[in-house]
Queue: 4 jobs
Job 1
Amino acid sequence: MEHTHSHGHITRNITRAFVWGIGLNISFTLIEFILGYYYNSLALIADASHNLSDVASLILSLIGFRLAQKAASKLYTYGYKKSTILASLINSVVLVFIVIGILREAIERLNTLPEVGGIGIIITAGIGIIINTVSAFLFFKNQKNDINIRGAFIHLLVDALVSVGVVISGIIILYTNIKVIDPIISIIIALIIALTTWNILKESLRLIIDAVPKDINYNKIESIVNTIPEVINVHHMHIWAISSNINGLTAHIIVDKSNFQKIEIIKREIKNILSENNIQHSTLEFEFSDEECMTENCH
């Protein structure tokens, strides 16, 4: 009961963080788009476009997170847990298209520099720094072990840093009237988005096709299991991500027939070791050393 209560508390906190993050960013994105067009600032419009993608990202992430809480069924035997990885993948792909759009517009503006209002950019981006920092802080505690929440956290943190860049752009334009800084800052913004998106995109693709999660070392897990005195060998081991924060493993464990009475004890020991190494769900099949099927080639 205590574990269930704790899990429910965490779920409510994360849901509340998403709702607040979505609300704050929708409000700021609308303001930034309006002022970006009013002051003719591509840097503001680029930042607003990124913020808009973050709103979509937060909504998708929230949907994925809530779906992952749904119970398993006979049709969806793992429930909807992988939806968090799918949400992360979709968000990353959307950001790639956002980057392409910003770069294209920035390059066009390098050839034809418009008038840009500096003071408006400074004030708007300054508000953005506060909103994005507060929004990112909401996800700080729960982002370390979940790629879906980490994606939301990184996007918001990058937004805060990008807004700092936009403020610098506004100050330079205000005091020097060097208008070329606006598209240059926009290009820098696009590159920052691309760099921060790449790792999440790559990891999402890996997890969606059931590759071993990057924070798990296959050889290390195999070695640790083999160090248990009663274990002769482990083979047919598969490790994959069930969701963005739950990993699974299946394996065949070979033991001596004399350890038949200790199978449950050995199983608990292995499962505890796996749990300590970020593998929360494991299915183990035991074989005896004198059985015919005990090599890596058996099925």
Job 2
Amino acid sequence: MSFMEEMTKTERVMAAVNGGEVDRIPVCFWHHFRPEGSGRRLAEATYDFFEATFDLDILKIMPDIPYPLPRRSITKPEDWLLVEPINAERSRFFTQRATAIRALRDAVGYDTPVIMTVFSPLAEAMYAAASRELFLEHLREHPVLIHQALATFAENLRAHIQGCIDAGADGVFFALQGCTATIMSRELYHEFGRPYDLLALQGAIDGWLNVLHIHGERDLHFADVLDYPVQVLSWSDRLAGPSLREARTMTSKCLMGGWHEFGALATGPVEKIREEAEDAIRQTGGRKFILANGCSVPDDTDEQWLRAAREIVNELVLP
């Protein structure tokens, strides 16, 4: 590849998304932080990890300010009627997440992409239920109530996503739960997942860096979400599949992955971290590709492996 001047992070990621030439492979990795309690503290934790410590190409705000419905609180079918529209001006979910985005924009300007992690309507519904099994029981026995709740979740999340982009985010990291045969069939996902995903994602229409994360460790309904209105696809390519090479034959979207989140990136050795990164570039040709973990690395990951991974990126040779 010919010599290129160093790009800003936004230029680098935007080039990868659009299939252009990059000065080096864009990189991002993450784990879950402890709840920080306020938008400003969330911004500080995000800046410290993604920018100050590891100099990553994307600032991915983690969902430490949860959806305003207590986790595991729904036990009876009629409890789904408690899922109500959110007042955007009064909800900390809206206001504090927007505060985090604006604080990060103030800190890094527009030379670094900022995205907000948002769980899908189905994911939020499963988190709200006392258990996943109970949710699936209600889904089978009281589908009208579940559809009503999912529609409300979706509309609230649509407004939230729009608010994030209005506050300065470049897009969202939209995390699907349930899009795997280990939780529900393709038919059920098409009924209870897809319509509400698409409704929520209407809020992301003005974003240029919307990442669809298809969560699961096996049997993903991968092909069923390739037409979602996003620019980037993220999944555990080394754990769940398909491989990056297989996915490249299925879609022209930018792919995000390459490192096994429970593998060398979390436990070493350095040689294996490098090997996975080089293999990912071979699989993708280094175009329309962001090097990342398939999903969150364990929270107790020794930072020496993350530092090594970041250093390796500077040494990778593009085709």
Job 3
Amino acid sequence: MNILHTEKLCKSFSNGGLQQHVIKNLDIGIKEKDYTIIMGASGSGKSTLLYALSGMDSPTLGSVYFGDTDISKYTNDQLAVFRRENCGFVFQSIYLLENMTVFDNVMTGALALQKNSAELVKKAETLLKKVGIGETLWNKYPNQLSGGECQRVGIVRAIINDPKIVFADEPTGSLNSASSSDVLDIFTEINKSGQSIVMVTHDMKTALRGNRVIYLRDGAVIGEHDMQPYGTDDSKQRLEGLQRFLDEMGW
């Protein structure tokens, strides 16, 4: 069952009086519990597609459905509520609030839903510990943390409201190898817990974590590659299969 799907999705921008067609008539579906990777060369429309799927940007033409609801017809206020209630976001630029502590950063989005604050505090504590952010860091500010630590805080902020789907745009792009692996392990656990993930990446190591890879070129899907959930198949065969697919795509 699709949690998200598009119909004839198009996105264009005006550039010097000319229309630049970034996304072209896309019909794609994201199933519940999928870990979908979006790949393609720079300028292929990866991030534009991610923003359209998540309701962060409106399509020029076509529709984005969340379940049976066409969210492309929502007003900006309705989209804000939709994102807050259903989506989590993790980006390469982490966008933590510099004047707030680690713990306050995590709580900002959660309290907007007006849930039981005591339960949210307990949940934030549990999640921070789970991703390796111990109590000694909770009252520190983002500029006192490493890049990997900030990204982990960003992930907790993204998932504290139990979003149905998590969107990530190059979440390991600015991290070193060790921090990248830690962050990818967290995404794997999120997916295993039942949440859908849609992630844009140019990195093969990151792409290996998904169970499906969509490859874009010039705003159109030119190929898809399906894999078993990460860790359930032969890692060498998984790597070789993905490499063959990417070679065929001209990656």
Job 4
Amino acid sequence: MIDQIPSVIYIISDGTGETAATIIRAALVQYQKPDIQIVRCKNVRSDTQIESLIDECFERRGMVIYTVASPQMRTKIKESATQKGLLSFDLLGPLLETLDQYFGVTSGARVNVLRNTDEMYFKRIEAIEYTVKHDDGKCLVDLDKADIILVGISRTSKTPLSIFLSHKGWKVANVPLVPGNPVPEELFKVDQKRVVGLIIDMDSLQRIRKNRLEKFGQDTGGEYASLSQISKEIEFAEQLYKQNRRWPVFNVTERALEETASEIVRVIAARLGLPDSVLF
């Protein structure tokens, strides 16, 4: 009768529990039980949460594996599981205790470090996914969810800047400006404090465009890299920026990517009233 009950493992974590889940799945490869269910319980930070989860695990005849930094919480989980007659395993505690001995310090003072690290990691992943999806005006859906929106003509570092900023946790969309093509209406419906214009020197832009054409074996004498076409595009962008004076404009000519990105973040953070901790 007991064998007919699906096996279930509860992961109790003060973070995301993703690392614990990965370790458990690796260990479960050694067992021929395809019906094992893993229940990941994230952001557990109170005795009430622990008691509720232990009761739930007891009802399902499961076992508990926990990864929390707080010694008090580890003790609570262990005692609650024991009272219910549940098997439990502390995945993090023994490691922390051994490291405490080695370094001669107490790790308990840094309880939130793992959780903060997990949150930062997943924030970056979410930002990168958003940024890739909203590159070069490919997707204007959820434009209002962008932290930063970069606007500029072709080859003004929109994509490199977007990707760089996304790795810092910023959701970035970039919208290309093309003379003769209407600027997307969605751009004017979002918080204008998040929109940033990019501009570049004519000669530098011509050199960049010619280098790009040469790289792909294309003719460098066409309109794309001509000074007359570049002049039209720059004028088009400058006119748009004059009409939208709330957009800060950054000149990317001969500037390091990191330098421009840092200045953009500084300005956006100030405009949105964000703390200095968001700067890099």
